[in-house]
Structures are given as structure tokens and as C-alpha cells.
Specification:
With 249 residues, the chain is mostly helical. 77% of the residues lie in helices and 0% in strands. It has one domain. α2 (44-64) runs parallel beside α8 (220-236) and α7 runs antiparallel to α8.
Amino acid sequence: MFLELQSNVQSLWLTVLLLSWAVFLFGGFLFGKINADQTHRMRTWTRMASSVVLVVAGWSWAVFMRETPVATYALLVAVGMSFGFLGDLFMAGLLPLKDYVLGGIGSFGIGHIFYIITFVGFGGQQGLDEPGARWGALALWLLVGLLGWYIVVFRGQQATFLHYAALPYALLLASTAGFATGLVLQAGGFAPLALGAALFLLSDLILAAQLFNNLRFRYIGDIVWLTYGPAQMLIVFSVYTALLVTRAG
């Protein structure tokens, strides 16, 4: 599947991880039983397992790419995904922190800082840093993030510290989408990456609507994960796209 890798063993290992991730995430939804308040079918362990697989995949890419031009890209993505998993643990209530939402925001936020450093650094390294594409896409996504925060989190609410803390977080996620879009405008192969970054922001806005506006509908918890999970997968496996871009250029 990953034909440009140095060995068939590496390709097979990453393919197995990708399939395992899909089994845990989509299988958890298809074969799970809906909970009492009808918000989700996935059990906590299948969601966490899908994220663990992506952490393993991220670090596998980092090891396999260590002698290639995308070594830094792979390493930073692996670190970002690891912080994402930490955020998953906070949001699932599996870590001893009373304000689990703030813990999740902090962990995901750090992960996205690593993602942004990855995309900006790689763009500069490969000459994919045309100002119009990079900063135009960023400006557009920052506007989307600002509007999303205002409509979903702030409007009509009795604002607390957490409401305001959600603004820089939303703008950070929007920045990830912006810089990813800047890459795809110059190298079309990064389209899955840009889609992943956009899905991450969408997932977060749905979750924010649930947390701050008490939005409820059947399977809302699953919808959050069925957008978030593919988002992280597309970001982690964008290492392969980066490798193809360096070899083509």
C-alpha cells in the first residue's frame, strides 16, 4: 500500500495499523450498543484503542522516516498525536483532573502547536510557502474559527473562563486547517491532510456545542468521534504524502 517505503515489512506494518484503527473506530460504532441517553454506541475502550493505534502509527512513521528528508515532519506529527491521545484520556475522564475539559483543551492545543510547526516548517523547506496561498488560507480559516466559536460557544451564554479559553483554542485549530490548506493549494497531494485538519475543527465545534450549549441528538458522541478519528488518521498518515512530495520535487 505504501509503495515508497524502504521495505515491504514497513508497508505491511503501517497497513495493519491503518486497518486496526478502522476496526476499532468503525467496528466500535457498528457493533456497539447504544447507551442509555442515546448519545453513542462506541464504548470507551474502542475509542481509546483507535487513538492508541494512531500513536503507534505516528511513532512508527517517525522511526521509519528517520533517514529521510521528512524525519522532522514525522517526528513532530508523532508528538502532536501523542498529545492528542492525552487529550482523549482527559475527555474520557480517565485521568484524575477535575476540570477535564480544560485538560483536554490544553493537551489538544499543544498537539496542534506541533502540527502547525510541522506544516510551516515543511512548507518552508520544500518551497511551499507562497505568501498568497499560505496567509490567505490562514486568514480564511481564522475567520471560520472565530465565527464558529462565537456561534457555538459564546453567543447567548453566561461567559466563564472556559468560554474565553475556548477562543484561542478554536483559533489554534483553525490555524492548523489554514496552514494545511496553504500546503494543498501548492501541492495537491496534501488534500487528505487539509480534509483532516478541517474535520478536526468540525468535530471540536460539535463537541463544543454539546458541552456549552447542551446540544443533544442521537449518536452525537459517535459523530464527534467519526469526525475526530479520521481527522487524526489523515494527519498522521500525511507523512507519506510529505515523503512523496520530497521525492517528486
